[in-house]
Specification:
This protein is an alpha+beta fold. The protein has 6 helices and 11 strands. Helix 2 runs antiparallel to helix 5 (134-154) and helix 5 packs antiparallel against helix 6.
């Protein structure tokens, strides 16, 4: 669909727009005396009546667009570069001041919620641990955890747990599934850019090996358990296709 925004009412938070089928995808056709659009991508015919009903259901539907706290990536990466440089030079370990993820889980014990899950881990951590000194390796791993945690926080997510050389984060999506899915994907993309534009270039200057990493995203329902603060997945919702981002 091509969207033409007509009116924006900032006081009432309303947008009036005109949606037009993209001619590169949809082509007007008449099949069996019925007029409609032929979807050239999915190879299906959609009668005008069906198409119109689908558009009507969108009228008045709220559009959720959670904005990350990172407004300027260039500035954010410049600040991240300063943090990473200091961390690698001082070789000090970082520990999170507050377990926001545990706090969220405790507030929803026994509840079954819909959320999007993101995980990231180092692929070559074993090699790094052999090449670097123990102090340098722990400092690098700590820096990796801190920077990815900050990006999760900036996109409205919560870190569930740190696992060895990676972390698992979740994005509550009960009332805004589409928006939080976008936030999780954006979070993963910013993490990938951080590795390629900030962390690995700084490691190159110190003659350290690059960080290779994986990022995966999935979604589903979960019930939170108090004792171990673990979540159990249920098959109430079809999962997203796993998205893999890798830095070689």
């Amino acid at each position: 669909m091509k969207v033409d925004v007509k009116v924006i009412d900032e006081k009432k938070h309303l947008i009036s727009m005109r949606m037009v089928p993209d001619p590169e995808r949809y082509e007007k056709r008449t099949i069996s005396d019925e007029e409609g659009y032929y979807d050239k991508y999915d190879n299906i015919f959609i009668p005008f009546e069906v198409f119109a009903k689908g558009v009507e259901t969108l009228a008045g539907t709220p559009i959720y667009a959670p904005a990350p706290s990172i407004r300027d990536l260039k500035q954010y990466f410049a600040e991240a570069s300063e943090r990473v440089t200091k961390s690698l030079e001082s070789e000090l370990e970082w520990k999170p001041e507050e377990d926001r993820g545990a706090g969220f889980l405790e507030r929803h014990v026994g509840s079954k919620l819909l959320f999007v899950v993101l995980y990231i881990d180092m692929v070559n951590s074993t090699r790094l641990s052999r090449v670097l000194s123990d102090i340098a390796y722990r400092s690098l791993l700590s820096t990796f955890m801190r920077e990815t945690t900050l990006i999760v926080d900036a996109h409205g997510g919560y870190v569930h747990k740190y696992i060895g050389d990676g972390l698992i984060a979740f994005f509550p999506a009960e009332n805004n599934y589409s928006g939080m899915t976008d936030s999780a994907v954006d979070c993963g993309l910013v993490m990938g850019l951080l590795m390629s534009q900030v962390l690995n270039p700084l490691l190159r200057k110190k003659a350290y090996p690059f960080i290779e990493f994986r990022i995966g995203i999935d979604s589903g329902g979960s019930t939170f358990v108090l004792r171990s603060l673990i979540w159990a997945f249920f098959s109430s919702l079809a999962p997203l296709d796993l998205r893999q981002l890798s830095q070689q």
